[in-house]
Amino acid sequence: MRKSKLIFFLCLGVMLFLFSCGRTGKKSYDEMGTHGLTTRTENLQANLRSFLNKGVLIGQQYGTLEGVGWRCDSDRSDFYSICNDRPACSGYEIRGIEKDQTTNVDSISFVNIRRDVLRLFRKGGLILLTWTAPNPKGDQHLLDQWVDHVAAFLNSLQDAYLIKAPVVLFPYPLDGKSWYAHLSPEDYKHLFEQTVERLKDQGVTNALYGLSFAGVMSQNDLEKWLPTGVDVLNGALFQIAQQTDTRHDQSDLTKMLQALTHCAQEHNIVPGLMTGIEGLQDTTYFSKTLLGIIHQYRLSYVMLGRNTGEMKERHYYAPYPGVDNALIADFVKMYNDPGTIFLSRLNGLYLKKEP
Hints:
The chain has ten helices and eleven strands. The model is unreliable at 1-24 (pLDDT under 50). The chain is globular and about 55 Å long. By secondary structure, it is of the alpha/beta class. Helix content is 39%, strand content 16%. The protein has an eight-stranded parallel barrel with strand order 1-4-5-6-7-8-9-10, surrounded by four helices. It has a two-stranded antiparallel sheet with strand order 2-3. The chain has helices spanning 2-24, 39-50, 78-83, 110-122, 140-155, 185-201, 219-225, 247-267, 285-296, 325-336; strands spanning 56-61, 66-67, 70-71, 89-93, 126-131, 167-171, 207-214, 232-239, 270-277, 301-304, 340-341.
């Protein structure tokens, strides 16, 4: 009898051991660094600064998720169609995730965004996320819930080996229209820093944080709005579609770039630019205007606006098959410039550099 009981408990122990092993799932190969971030995220933090001396990453909003006449095809890109290379960085808006919606504010599913983010990470590209938060109307508990949903999404950006994709997150971009843009600089910084701390408390270890602003701000104003803990400073200025006189836009762009780069240098943070001309009336835009910016200012990346819709709607910021050949040739001139980095030339963004 005692022997039977012994055999029973031995068998039970083996079964429990096997069951517990099955529940652990795959082993995670995601190593932690020394400052509360994954090692790959800490490497990105360092490399974004060092890449300033190597060239400017060229990317596009939703660059491999949609283009003129298509959306969410498998690893497609309007860039690739005209120069046989892909964007070195892609941008994604994640508004909608805070309410557990299936699609973002641009009607792109979060399933596809997550898949595209992981695909770009595997290829070594830079991932830029923007969260244009809706107004909680003073309800701090509701805002906390929204931030927790953002945290859950960031934590879900992991591959089959449980390695999280490092990202740069721009919470509360200063677009001049959103509710938080009407806060005082001190209240805005408190909101930003409080949100970052809550994301960290929710286990987010794969995000760097950036301040994004639209339009012209002086360096002094930028410094008033700059929260602590920011790694990236992003300026956004797009030319209005069908506008023929670009002199005013160029003057504004110059003022913004001067304030952006000077502020970034003073605070040892990474400067980036989101820009473009919708409809691309100027067939020398890439070889003259954009390359002029790239050569004059020390930027980490330049990201163009999104290509979307049908050909006749002219909602595009980069050439695509079927557009004016002169425009395609002009884009290729920029592509061939040694100061621009597309995905095929981007190497080691998440690897530790030897001193």
